[in-house]
Amino acid sequence: MLLIVVSVCTATGAWNWLIDPETQKVSFFTSLWNHPFFTISCITLIGLFFAGIHKRVVAPSICSMSNCTSRIQHVL
């Protein structure tokens, strides 16, 4: 759930960052400084990936799939 919220925040911030006409007129770091919502949400998203949240999201679906496969094999 946290990954979804941060991803949506990052996408929304990126959209606002890209459509801002001031973004093209200033340097990269200045434009990031002018858009703190995008900057903070992007840093948070990168931090979550370094913390391994993607493994926690993908691993349960793989485990449930193997569990389902073993049940089918047992029934057959």
UniProtKB/TrEMBL annotation:
Any one GO cellular component localisation term in the record: cytoplasm
Keywords: Cytoplasm, Lipid metabolism, Membrane, Nucleus, Transmembrane, Transmembrane helix
Keyword Transmembrane helix: yes
GO biological process, one term: lipid metabolic process
Cited InterPro entries: NEP1-R1 (IPR019168)
Compartments reported by the entry: Cytoplasm; Nucleus membrane
Transmembrane regions: 37-54
Pfam families reported in the protein's UniProt record: Tmemb_18A
Lipid bilayer topology: Multi-pass membrane protein
Family: Belongs to the CNEP1R1 family.
Listed name of the protein: Nuclear envelope phosphatase-regulatory subunit 1
Source organism per UniProt: Lynx pardinus
